């Protein structure tokens, strides 16, 4: 726990006594207007609001513009900028070593959808307790604007090059693989993204967030299906989200029958006010269908797509002791002499 | 056998041979998946129980069942347990290879074979013992499915009789091997007895090979190298294991899993003080190992050559970002898929430099099963002390074969967690910089997620002392020079070499890993046959100690003996040696996939030293180069 100091006069503190600026990182080196910067801001807001202790957070990323962003939030937390496409394994190892850590993983559509697709698949299968954010702009920004596997068929680069391969719908893939929390949002939708991030922080298991995050430099033009303009006009929210953390005594007024409540692992509640269709995020088949339908219309479904609040997470399944393995003393990890003697006797 | 046939054979092979006691090799040629491994281990163990030094080497195909497999047991009163090229006693159970097996024997060898194969027509200079296995097994085992497996135990019974191994020793070994399955024990015991009885009543011993009790194995254990490494990892306090199956490495992690499940469950809570994950591939396995090491756990993975290739990128990350990890490489024949079930020492160069850019890794080279155990423990200490990956370079011969050993010693040193930042240190050094060389040894202090110390950003991109992203030339150079300094510091911490100086010798021998066993025997051969004395330097780690240069300096020529084509260790040594010393190095290379044998080494050294090896019949004479010229 971070030490609680009396707040500067008038400054707001969260429930663990920290101020909002303590959740910031270093100054961003990403382009002005980059969607990733907005996502970083939302992460800062969400962590502050939820009273997350930065000392327990590990920020993980692969390689790419999005993978640079963990430096720009939670500056006092440990971070590991790994190798391209392989952040899931590093995150898995870190959590095995210390199950108390709060893991926030930031990746991109190339880092996850191309080189990282293998590790992504197995991460979703295992249900490791990690927030896995794909900052999705349909292109490789850092290497100057090649298509990524989430770029839509027929979309165009500034140079006129047309993408002739169908995109991977990372959310559909995640649902199919058994992910226990799948959501999509948009870097420009402050309310929705914040609610989804907080819900992710309350979930126990892999919370996979596909966040459309336009690349102002390489993929924000006419012909792109990941531009600000396109995102805004083709966004198909599944529900209107509001989130109440477990430590708040708020009740949400709503008309009966219009809002579904999903209680998350830590007791927080996500309120899903139904829009047009009667969408139930607890229904996997419905999730697969709605993703397929919206895709067919050239739109993308946003909001909470699927959730399984009680699915056992990977660490539970391993039946480890409660204390982090990294902190166990010699007595607990080096068996006594009798054990070696017993083994030797068995081999004589 | 018809008496007249016996008479003919005796005449052909000369006198009934003098007994050859405790100094021969037995090869069992069977089909894999047929239960021969149990029979082989029972045979091995029986001889071991009789106090005679013994080794067992399995030559098996990359296959599940149905292909030829050969198990070679070397019995040697002097303790020479390296592979011997010549086979003295063949058990021919595989019709497919039987002909070639028999034809490749030297004269005077013995052959127990399945009678219907009629192998005795092939040679007239061998001792043949036909055994009707199918008839015999039918009497012992009514279940047709089990017959195939039990059949092999019959040859153990036959050998027991022919070689004068006490049947009770075989039975004792059988109980050890199959102890937990009483029905199987009974069934196999029956097969042993049937084989013994048949040999007793139908076979007349004419070959010279027999076993007499000795006292050379008292208190020793029998263990495979991979199992020994697993015990080591257990005793090192490993907590996170991530792995991907690959021959010949899998048994290391699988054995470790068994030990962890048995000995590392917390009594009170019945929960595990470890985590084992079978990853989706080797890249994920090393990624998890590194993630865990970064977060403060003792972590490891185990693999073979192809896996090491995959781990290249992450190995460079762990080197540059300075994260501890232990990687076992149980080497097999490459390149590429190579020969998955054959041994080699061919990953030395790749591993020393694994990754792009200026990378250099710490390696240890176990030669014995005891070293598999001890170096495993040491590897974890070294990885954390130097905040780097440490590669334990074992091989298939050591890892998957059964070796004798002194029992292992309980570690006396406490776990060395290395330079982990705590409050006291933080006060002493003032400001924490993850890559700040505060002590001058190139090793910085590290903090660990969740430990309440100042945090840092771990990254494979260029960084300064404070772990901040930096592209500055001075930051980059200073940091990478410090890594070189750190590697230099490690030099004297790595396992020391084993050195034996023969003051009168003008030549030296350098070897590592399992080559050691053939070297021990070869040095004695060189001395006995050609009066050539040698000094011996056994490399146990990389970076090399300065003693290596001193060793080379005191000899005119030094032979570096290794099991790969490209003289990898010699090449690595050259990088560290002054040109004049490097020019004294010669190679003895063996790279067929079989474990190296002493004769190969002896012959090669003699040839390179200018001797001629002349073979007349069974006799060998060694003639120095200058002999016969000018009346020597």
The biggest sheet of chain A, with number of strands, parallel, antiparallel or mixed sense and barrel status, is: 8 strands, mixed
Q: Largest contact between protein chains?
A: A-B, 54 and 67 residues
Radius of gyration of chain B, in Å, reads 27 Å
Helix content of chain B: 25-40%
Gap between N and C termini of chain B: 53 Å
Instruction: Quickly give the CATH architecture of chain A.
Output: 3-Layer(aba) Sandwich
Overall strand count of chain B: 26
Relative strand content of chain A: 15-25%
Structural class of chain A: alpha/beta
Mean pLDDT value of chain A = 92
Structure characterization notes:
The complex is a heterodimer of chains A (348) and B (632). Chain A has helices at residues 35-50, 65-68, 87-97, 109-113, 117-126, 170-177, 190-202, 228-234, 284-296, 314-317, 330-333, 337-345; strands at 57-61, 78-81, 102-108, 130-136, 139-140, 146-147, 181-186, 206-212, 235-237, 239-244, 259-263, 269-274, 300-307. Chain A is of the alpha/beta class and 348 residues long. In chain A, helix 1 crosses helix 7 (190-202). Chain A is globular. Chain A starts with 34 loop residues before the first helix and ends with a helix. In chain B, helix 2 runs parallel beside helix 5 and helix 4 (133-140) packs across helix 5. Chain B is globular, with a radius of gyration of 27 Å. Chain B has 22 helices and 26 strands. In chain B, strands 10, 11, 12, 13, 14, 15, 16 and 22 form an eight-stranded mixed β-sheet that branches. A six-stranded mixed β-sheet of chain B has the order 3-4-2-5-6-7, sandwiched between helices. In chain B, strands 19-21-20-23-24 form a five-stranded mixed β-sheet, with helices on both faces. The chains are: A alpha/beta (348), B alpha/beta (632). Chains A and B meet through strand 2, helix 3, helix 5, helix 11 and helix 12 of A and strand 9, helix 8, helix 10, helix 12 and strand 18 of B.
């Amino acid at each position: 726990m971070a030490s609680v100091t009396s707040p500067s006069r008038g400054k707001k503190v969260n429930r663990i006594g920290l101020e909002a600026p303590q959740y910031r990182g270093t100054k961003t080196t990403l382009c002005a207007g980059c969607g990733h910067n907005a996502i970083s801001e939302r992460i800062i807001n969400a962590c502050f609001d939820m009273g997350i202790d930065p000392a327990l957070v590990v920020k993980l990323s692969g390689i790419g513009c999005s993978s640079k962003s963990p430096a720009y939030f939670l500056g006092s937390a440990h971070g590991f900028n790994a190798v391209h496409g392989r952040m899931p394994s590093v995150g898995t190892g870190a959590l095995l070593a210390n199950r108390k850590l709060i893991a926030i993983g930031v990746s991109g559509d190339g880092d996850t959808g191309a080189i990282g697709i293998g590790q992504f698949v197995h991460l979703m299968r295992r249900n490791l307790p990690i927030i896995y954010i794909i900052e999705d702009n349909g292109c490789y920004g850092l290497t100057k604007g090649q298509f990524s596997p989430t770029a839509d068929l027929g979309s165009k680069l500034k140079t006129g090059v047309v993408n002739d391969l169908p995109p991977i719908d990372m959310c559909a893939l995640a649902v199919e693989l058994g992910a226990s929390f799948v959501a999509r949002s948009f870097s420009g939708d402050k309310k929705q993204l914040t609610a989804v991030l907080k819900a992710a922080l309350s979930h126990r298991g892999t919370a996979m967030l596909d966040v459309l995050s336009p690349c102002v430099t390489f993929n924000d033009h006419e012909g792109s299906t990941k531009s600000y303009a396109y995102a805004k006009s083709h966004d198909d929210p599944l529900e209107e989200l509001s989130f109440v953390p477990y430590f708040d005594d708020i009740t949400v007024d709503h008309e009966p029958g219009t809002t579904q409540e999903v209680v998350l692992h830590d007791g927080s509640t996500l309120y899903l006010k139904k829009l047009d269709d009667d969408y139930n995020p607890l229904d996997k088949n419905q999730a697969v269908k709605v993703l397929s339908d919206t895709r067919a219309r050239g739109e993308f479904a946003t909001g909470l797509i699927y959730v399984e609040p009680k699915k056992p997470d990977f660490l539970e399944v391993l039946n480890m002791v409660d204390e982090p393995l990294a902190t166990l003393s010699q007595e607990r990890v080096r068996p006594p002499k009798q054990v070696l003697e017993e083994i030797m006797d068995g081999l004589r | 056998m018809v008496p007249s046939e016996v008479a003919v054979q005796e005449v052909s092979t000369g006198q009934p041979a003098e007994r050859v006691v405790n100094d021969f090799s037995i090869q069992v040629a069977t089909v894999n998946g047929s239960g021969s491994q149990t029979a082989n281990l029972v045979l091995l163990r029986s001889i071991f129980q009789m106090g005679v030094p013994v080794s067992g080497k399995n030559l098996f195909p990359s296959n599940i069942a149905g292909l030829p497999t050969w198990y070679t047991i070397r019995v040697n009163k002097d303790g020479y347990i390296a592979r011997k090229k010549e086979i003295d006693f063949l058990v021919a159970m595989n019709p497919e290879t039987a002909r070639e097996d028999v034809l490749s024997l030297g004269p005077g060898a013995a052959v127990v074979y399945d009678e219907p194969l009629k192998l005795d027509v092939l040679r007239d200079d061998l001792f043949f013992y036909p055994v009707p296995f199918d008839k015999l097994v039918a009497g012992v085992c009514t279940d047709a499915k089990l017959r195939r497996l039990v059949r092999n135990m019959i040859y153990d019974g036959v050998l027991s009789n022919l070689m004068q191994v006490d049947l009770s020793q075989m039975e004792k070994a059988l109980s050890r091997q199959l102890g937990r399955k009483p029905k199987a024990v009974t069934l196999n015991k029956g097969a042993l007895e049937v084989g013994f009885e048949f040999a007793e009543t139908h076979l007349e011993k004419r070959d010279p090979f027999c076993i007499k009790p000795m006292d050379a194995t008292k208190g020793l254990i029998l263990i495979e190298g991979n199992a020994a490494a697993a015990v080591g990892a257990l005793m090192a306090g490993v907590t996170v294991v991530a792995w991907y199956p690959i021959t010949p490495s899998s048994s290391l992690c699988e054995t470790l899993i068994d030990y962890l499940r048995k000995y590392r469950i917390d009594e009170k809570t019945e929960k595990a003080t470890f985590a084992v994950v079978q990853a989706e591939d080797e890249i994920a396995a090393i990624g998890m190992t590194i993630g865990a090491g970064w977060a403060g756990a003792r972590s490891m993975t185990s693999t073979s050559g192809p896996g090491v290739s995959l781990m290249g990128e992450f190995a460079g990350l762990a080197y540059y970002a300075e994260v501890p990890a232990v990687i076992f490489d149980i080497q097999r024949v490459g390149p590429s898929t190579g020969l998955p079930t054959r041994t080699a020492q061919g990953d030395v160069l790749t591993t020393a430099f694994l990754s792009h850019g200026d990378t250099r890794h710490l390696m240890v080279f176990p030669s014995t099963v005891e070293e598999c155990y001890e170096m495993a423990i040491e590897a974890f200490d070294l990885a954390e002390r130097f905040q780097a990956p440490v590669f334990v370079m074992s091989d298939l011969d050591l890892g998957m074969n059964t070796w004798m050993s002194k029992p292992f010693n309980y570690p006396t040193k406490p776990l060395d967690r290395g330079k982990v930042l705590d409050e006291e240190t933080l006060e002493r050094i003032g400001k924490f910089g993850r890559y700040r060389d505060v002590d001058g040894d190139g090793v910085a202090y590290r903090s660990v997620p969740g430990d309440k110390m100042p945090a840092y950003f771990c990254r494979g991109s260029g960084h300064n002392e404070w772990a901040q992203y930096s592209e500055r030339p001075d930051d980059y150079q200073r940091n990478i020079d410090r890594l070189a300094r750190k590697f230099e510091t490690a030099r004297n911490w790595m396992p020391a070499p084993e050195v034996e100086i023969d003051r009168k010798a003008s030549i030296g021998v350098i070897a590592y890993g399992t080559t050691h066993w053939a070297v021990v025997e070869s040095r004695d051969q060189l001395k006995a046959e050609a009066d050539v004395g040698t000094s011996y330097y056994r490399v146990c780690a990389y970076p090399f100690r300065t003693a290596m240069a001193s060793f080379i300096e005191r000899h005119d020529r030094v032979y570096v003996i290794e099991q790969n084509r490209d003289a990898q260790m010699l090449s690595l040594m050259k990088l560290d040696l002054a040109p004049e010393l490097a020019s004294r190095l010669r190679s003895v290379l063996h790279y067929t996939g079989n474990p190296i044998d002493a004769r190969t080494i002896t012959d090669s050294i003699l040839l390179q030293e200018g001797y001629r090896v002349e073979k007349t019949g069974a006799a060998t004479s060694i003639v120095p180069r200058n002999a016969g010229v000018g009346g020597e």
